[in-house]
Amino acid sequence: MKADPRDTDTRLEITDTWGSTATHTRAATVTRVVAERGSGAALRFHVRRLAVAVRARARAVWGQVRETLTAAGWMVVASLVVGALAGPVAGWALGWFLLVGGLVLLLGATPFMLGGHSYLVHLRLDRDRVVAGHEVGGAVEVVNDSRRPALPAIIDVPVGDGLVEANVPMMGPGGRHSEPLRIAALRRGVIEVGPMTLVRSDPVGLLRREMSWPDTQTIFVHPVTVGLPATSTGEVHDLEGLASTHIVAADLAFHAIREYVPGDSLRHVHWKSTAKVGRLMVREYEESRRSRLAVLLGLDAGDYLDEDELELAISVAASLASQGIRDGRDMYVATSEEPPRITRGATVAIRSLPSVSARTLLDATCELRATPRSTRLEDVTVLAAQSCPGMTMAFLVTGSQPDLTRLAAARAALPSSTRAVAVRCEIDGEPSVRATAAMTVITVGALGDLGRLLARGALG
Length: 460
Hints:
Elements: E1 9-15, E2 21-27, H1 39-68, H2 71-89, H3 93-109, E3 119-125, E4 129-131, E5 134-144, E6 153-159, E7 162-168, E8 176-185, E9 189-193, E10 196-201, E11 208-213, E12 217-222, E13 242-248, E14 253-259, H4 271-277, E15 281-289, E16 292-297, H5 307-326, E17 330-337, E18 349-353, H6 358-365, H7 377-387, E19 393-398, H8 404-412, E20 419-425, E21 432-435, E22 440-444, H9 449-458
Helix pairs in contact: 2-3, 5-6, 7-8
């Protein structure tokens, strides 16, 4: 009796690799071929698959053609099309000239694109930090890592917004070439060098092939700074400060031994000196002061006459902060910041610069920019007073546009115990020092004036 194919209780016979046979009973699904495809259906299937492969290959070739042909190459291709229509079709002699000339140019440029290349490219810079106005030296080192000679090529090295070309000559297998590189760092900022692109092209410039390396290096162009006189301005804060000329009964910096007076603590009696002179003698010390210096820089574009005045202000702020770090002061450096655009109501913001070392501070100053939406100096001092309430001295650095009324308003936001010095930066302005009851205002016409003006009266 013929079994019903719809029956799901099917007996399966399984033979293992050793030839033994086992019989199992389980639920299974039986599939039957009800019709067999004809030869026409199989042919259509293979044709469709071939069409898909040809279309994918055509897209790949077309992409390579678009990447290889330059603008001049497309003009030659256009002349070929026009020449083919005007010469063989219309019979014009000019058409034949365009057709033959275009073919000669393309066939002559093709050999320069043949063959692959295997280069090892390394960008080497002699330093990654430089002061504005100097140069950075380096080299592009190329090694032919293949077993075949490599045709001449050009390596494009992006330097900031510009482009430097390094010429690579023809090199044999394992050949090496070093192309010197000079980068002019004329103004403060951050210069990104790379990624490099190797370019192979024909002499006419019809065809072009490129290969990129992701190697990118950063150059920090620091503002110009000057050394300044060290200061001891501050208040008694802790025992890690700097010695001053103020004599106190107890501290770390020993000053001298004097005779005991009523009220002196017996803990400071110097017993050896007492035994020698026969009278009680006590130690006295120089007061240790720890200065919490704040350098506050306003970056509102309206406060500056031009870009050079802004650079002078940044150099002044960087010089003050760097000297404070070198003197071991507890520094707080803040600048204006552009608040977010999507906010409700008026918003102000400041940016705190790292003051762990002079190097990290100068790195941060490379990215400073003045914008019309940056926080005004008056608001910078308000936020700075909240962020650093224990400051003993504050330098307010700005351009030539704020008047004394605005400077006084900025000073009023600081604690009354904070000594304030406003530094107005005015290119070619007359250097001056003006002391008021609330603060000292100095005008700097050049960076070299800063140290002289501070020594004259601002820190006195």
